[in-house]
Amino acid sequence: MEVFLNTPAQLSLPLYLPDDETFASFYPGENRSLLAALHSMLAQEHGSYLYFWSRKGGGRSHLMHAACAELSHRGEAVGYVPLDKRTWFVPEVMDGMEQLALVTIDNIECIVGDEPWEMAIFNLYNRIQETGRTRLIISGNCPPRQLNLNLPDLASRLDWGQIYRLQALSDEEKGAALQLRARLRGFELPEDVSRFLLKRLERDMRTLSLTLDQLDHASIRAQRKLTIPFVKDILNL
């Protein structure tokens, strides 16, 4: 899936997002209220704002990608701004984004103390409020008031809308999430292999998902099912 960091009328930087990070592949756990809010927001024709937060690896980017995929598949223009990769672009990339149907700003904690970026997001927020057409989703690693932004007006703006905590999955739920992802990719992840991965790897979903993708490719090349001995061999565990 391709989304843009700027409006179609201007020079734009395309980003290719994972095709498998959709709402269908997101295991909800204790996050059904957040998911319901996101679906409701994306179903509306008018603009709205939502902020959610979690620790790193909690699934923030997955939900951002899923929201972009939802509207992109409906033919609407979307923008995804991963602030952890902001060295790739400049704050002026925000100019004109109020013309898009959806703007998603990921990892806002990465620009705390960076005045040009804080001002760019503040100005975009105000333009979106004025036009009333764009849906805006922002993610961070803590609630807006705890970001310690240098620009007080930005902190207060971010605190005005719907705010949710993205609840971490339990180990049991992470196992179920991996099995869901495997089924969507067309293979089965045995429960004993799932438990083994959770015991031997970093347990954030990003690491687990990337490892699952690696194992999927390895099993296809070797024409073997996923077993604990095979996983040990592939991952050098």
Automatic annotation (TrEMBL):
Superkingdom assignment: Bacteria
Chromosomal replication initiator protein DnaA ATPAse domain span: 20-162
Gene for this chain: hda
Record carries keyword Cytoplasm: no
Native species: Acerihabitans arboris
InterPro entries, per the entry: DnaA_dom, Hda, Hda_Enterobact, Hda_lid, P-loop_NTPase
BP term (GO), one: negative regulation of DNA-templated DNA replication initiation
Alphabetically ordered keywords of this record: DNA replication, DNA replication inhibitor
Subunit relationships: The active form seems to be an ADP-bound monomer. Forms the RIDA complex (regulatory inactivation of DnaA) of ATP-DnaA, ADP-Hda and the DNA-loaded beta sliding clamp (dnaN).
The protein's name in its UniProt record: DnaA regulatory inactivator Hda
Role this protein plays: Mediates the interaction of DNA replication inititator protein DnaA with DNA polymerase subunit beta sliding clamp (dnaN). Stimulates hydrolysis of ATP-DnaA to ADP-DnaA, rendering DnaA inactive for reinititation, a process called regulatory inhibition of DnaA or RIDA.
Domain Hda lid positions: 171-235
Family: Belongs to the DnaA family. HdA subfamily.
